[in-house]
TrEMBL record:
<dbReference type="InterPro" id="IPR036390">
    <property type="entry name" value="WH_DNA-bd_sf"/>
</dbReference>
<comment type="similarity">
    <text>Belongs to the ROK (NagC/XylR) family.</text>
</comment>
<protein>
    <submittedName>
        <fullName>ROK family protein</fullName>
    </submittedName>
</protein>
<dbReference type="InterPro" id="IPR036388">
    <property type="entry name" value="WH-like_DNA-bd_sf"/>
</dbReference>
<dbReference type="Pfam" id="PF00480">
    <property type="entry name" value="ROK"/>
</dbReference>
<dbReference type="InterPro" id="IPR043129">
    <property type="entry name" value="ATPase_NBD"/>
</dbReference>
<dbReference type="InterPro" id="IPR000600">
    <property type="entry name" value="ROK"/>
</dbReference>
Length: 416
């Protein structure tokens, strides 16, 4: 009985430490102990104990005192903020156009990142993971030298991921049925694998695992939105009330394979006329007559597409408008099904947006069932570059936010 009681108290303390950190992250700017107590519903005495533990463990630091009336902790009140240069998460990504890593500080700054651009179709997984391992090792040594604690790692992949470490397939890489734990870098960093759209969506949630600036956010920490990742493949993710809805198997949001035209082009999934065959990066480049080369997935061709379209090339425009119509139709259906009115565009279509985002928004608005009372918003990604890498680093950091006890030896000692 005594042991069970101890375990429960430890779990409760860990839960409360996590709540304190989540509250501070969600708020976006420093909060005093009294404000934290008020926002969490915890007692002031409990808040004093919890914040002392977090300060001792160098998670939080006391900022310059401000005058806060009725703080109950004596005046002036002392705001608490996360300690920078101490806690980091690492994101790894293998995508259709290259691979790399990104390290994120809990304060929200990018510590270090590296990306190799390369057409990845039919590459050898073992070779690519070995390359990624070689890239990341000096970064890990750098973190150690700088006194960082690496909290966790996420791995973003352009395919269906089952559980933490099984890639069922990534057709645009030509990879199938891979146990990712066979790769040294995945094992060493305890990296959890995710579909790239899911982590790119997480990167849009303010305060998910890093400090954010509420004044510049386009979304709130508890907002709902549909995230669309547009690359060679088109992926999607649903975030409801600030939480990713990955679905029963983690496969939710695969909108790239919604059929737009039953008589359309053959898709990598085996069907015909999927959204990807009209609005995917390779499909657009090929329809615009730029190349049908086996390396048509390379990013340079997409940049060529954008520049041709901007210069008034009619074939490029026709390709883009056919893609836009397909995207509009699918997104209107998605809005109808999930009843979420905000869409965040990432990847190629966010680069194309400009005059297209209002057109897309107006088109979806016209096609949805609840048009009279639903106001659709189409936004572009708040993280313009490598949002999946940023999200993967965030899920690494989130391991610390959700399970702080293993990182806080001080807390353990105090609990005994
Ligand atoms: Zn398909």
């Amino acid at each position: 009985m005594a042991r069970m009681k101890t375990i429960n108290q430890d779990n409760l303390r860990e839960h409360n430490l996590s709540i304190v950190m989540q509250t501070l992250l969600g708020h976006g700017s420093p909060l005093s102990r009294a404000q934290l107590a008020q926002k969490t519903g915890l007692t002031k005495a409990a808040m004093s104990l919890l914040t002392d533990m977090l300060i001792q463990a160098q998670v939080l630091q006391q900022m310059a005192p401000t005058s806060e009336p009725n703080s109950g902790f004596g005046r002036p009140a002392t705001p608490l903020a996360f300690v920078p240069h101490r806690w980091a998460g690492i994101g790894l990504q293998i995508n259709t156009d290259g691979y790399g890593y990104l390290i994120l500080d809990i304060s929200g700054t990018i510590v270090r990142s590296e990306w190799i651009s390369k057409a990845m179709i039919d590459t050898d997984p073992a070779t690519i993971f070995a390359e990624l391992d070689r890239m990341v090792r000096p970064a890990e040594a750098f973190l150690k030298d700088e006194g960082y604690q690496l909290c966790g790692a996420g791995l973003a992949l352009p395919g269906l991921v089952e559980g933490e470490n099984k890639l069922l397939f990534a057709r645009n890489l030509g990879w199938t049925d891979l146990d990712l734990s066979q790769f040294a870098v995945v094992r060493r960093l305890h990296a959890h694998a995710y579909n790239e759209a899911n982590v790119a969506a997480i990167a849009q949630i303010p305060g998910f695992a890093t400090v954010h600036d509420p004044d510049s956010d386009q979304l709130g920490p508890s907002d709902s939105f549909i995230f669309i990742s547009t690359d060679v493949g088109i992926g999607g993710a649903l975030v409801r009330d600030g939480h990713l809805e990955a679905g029963q198997h983690g496969f939710a949001g695969e909108i790239g394979h919604m059929q737009v035209d039953p008589h359309g082009a053959h898709c990598t999934c085996g069907r015909t006329g999927c959204l990807e065959t009209l609005a995917g990066r390779r499909a657009l480049v090929e329809a615009a007559g730029i190349t049908t080369h086996e390396h048509s997935a390379e990013r340079t061709f997409a940049l060529d597409l954008i520049s041709r379209w901007q210069q008034g090339d009619s074939q490029a425009a026709a390709a883009i408008y056919a893609g836009l119509n397909a995207l509009t139709s699918v997104l209107a259906s998605v809005v109808n099904v999930v009843d979420i009115d905000t869409i965040v565009l990432g990847g190629l279509w966010s680069e194309l947006s400009g005059s297209l985002a209002p057109r897309l928004q107006a088109g979806i608005q016209d096609q949805i069932i609840g048009s009279a009372s639903v106001k659709v918003r189409v936004l572009t990604s708040a993280v313009p570059e490598h949002s999946a890498l940023v999200g993967a680093a965030q899920v690494g950091l989130r391991q610390f936010i959700d399970h702080p006890r293993q990182f806080l030896p001080q807390a353990e000692r105090k609990a005994e």
